[in-house]
Amino acid sequence: MKKYIINGGKNLSGEIVISGSKNVVLKILVAACLTDEEIVLKNVPLISDFYVMLDLVREIGGEVELSEHTVKIRIPEIKTTKLPLEIGAKIRTTSMFLAPLLARTKNASIPNPGGCRIGARPIDRHIKGLEQMGAEISYYSDDGYFHAKTDGLKGTTYEFEKNSHTGTETLIIAAVLAKGTTIIKNAAEEPEVDDLIGFLNSMGAKIKRTDNRTIEIEGVSSVHGTTYTIMPDRNEVVTVAICSALTGGNILIKNANLSDLDTFLKVFEKAGGAWEEKDGAVRFFIIDQVLPVDVATGPHPKFMTDWQGPWALLMTQAQGKSLLHETVYENRFAYKKEVEKMGAKMQFVAPVVEDPENLYNFNYEKERKYRQQIQITGPRRLHNAVLSIADLRAGATLVLAALIAQGESVIYGIEYLDRGYEAFDTRLAALGADIHALEE
Predict the structure, then answer these.
(1) One of 39, 41, 75, 116 is an active-site residue; which one?
(2) Which domains can be identified in the chain, with CATH numbers?
(3) What's residue 247's pLDDT?
């Protein structure tokens, strides 16, 4: 078991380079399986989920060559259409392999996907879409697999009932080699989806957005190899931006694309924050004091659900009370009780919601009791504690909390952090953080 020892209360300064996007590279590795030609990906993040995906590419017959932050992959032949349970069940992106396997071999067996337990996160939305394209898919509880087959995927018009980032990307990949034209309505509009589209189009696919929430894919007979650079990770930018704001405001962030962060920037400014761009880097800081701001998460272009944990920590230092309403997932406040150990004041409060079934992006059940909003009272002086990480973004939140707390904190569950942040401890240490990783 790996843990962090952090002595907090230190101001940080220096440069940090943002990694390639986790939410892009995992999906692009799936899309790369559509061709038997070589794919070269640059700016790949060296995180544990990336390595799991490379293992899956190898399992189905792929050749992989990794050098620093560039990976070359080629899958001349699909050697197996069944992903191994011990690897495939580790992360959510496994389910997306249904698309290229059905497109190239007309068969696929995928284990029930894993990942952070931040809610039910059902894959029924993209299963329905694939079925409408001509796939037959059954789940067998005795072996934990989705078994799929098709006589050939065909274009269709499919509308998502609720926003589905992964569902949209799965259907895009499936439609590339499908016969005819596919139109996806109520499609996710995150920048990461557009980066996947850019990658596929560089392979010879024909994909375009006809409006913000509609994507049209004209099927082609084949796609080819390409070289592509992964976009910067928006979640990492926000994590480091809040870290900078809380630890002196002197961290210079390189490889950050602010045009993808409009919503965060607007809310950060309301909270008393500012940023300065200079020589290809950006610095985030607090002008005078942190101000309380009420925030509700939602699909892009709303405030991203992955940002709410670090944002909650920022609000613990605000002058007054703020509300944080989570509408995307039903179990995203795992960090709450841990930060409360450190002296934070947070409490669940019932939000006023007129139409919860339409507001919430998860499959809302009337009879179930949900706790979707917290009230945060600040400012609070945080102190050291022994902490446990429950999911990836909660892990980043707890690390930031330990960095601003007085005394020595111990954080367990670092394997969750490793899923999305490359060498987080050494990169923070380079900024002056007193942080050490130990194995038990």
Answers:
(1) 116
(2) 2-19+232-439 (3.65.10.10), 22-229 (3.65.10.10)
(3) 98
